Structure prediction request, 183 residues.
Amino acid sequence: CCQNLKKVEIPKNSNLQTIETGAFSNSKIEEIYIPSKVSIIGECSFYYCHNLLKVVIPTNSSLQTIESHAFYRSSIIEIFIPSNVTKICENAFYECRNLRKVEIPANSNLQIIEPRAFYSTNITKIFIPSKVSKICESAFFDCKNLTNVEFAQNSNLQTIEKNVFSITNINEILIPSKVSKIC
Prediction:
């Protein structure tokens, strides 16, 4: 709740490993560089950072988990999810209404997209990498501009929970062969 905090500089060679719960919540920061050694972006780290437009995460990032409510209602426009991330927790990008682009590399280790992870964002397309086995309830609910969902050819997706793609503009979707449950 540092209402006057607008700028945070963390050097690229920083030894910072964890951004813990609520670290920058309710601040006025506009952009942030997440150093490559950071492995966890904690719960509510950037919660209600309405001025946060830019989050830079390097491709060689050690980031493994984006915890719940991490960017809740921030104003980020795009996000790169590094290949080491295994879990995007519930409400991580909830109501990030300016979020238009989510980049997930093909070699991603992402395994689960938890409930409401991208709820009510403005993404237009999403790539679901091969190691994702479960997309949880309402993960992409109310993503009105979402028209394209692409699954990796060797997808291990097994479960699509309820309301995952409700209130989107998808007009065609190819369900991977390993899916055994659509709720």
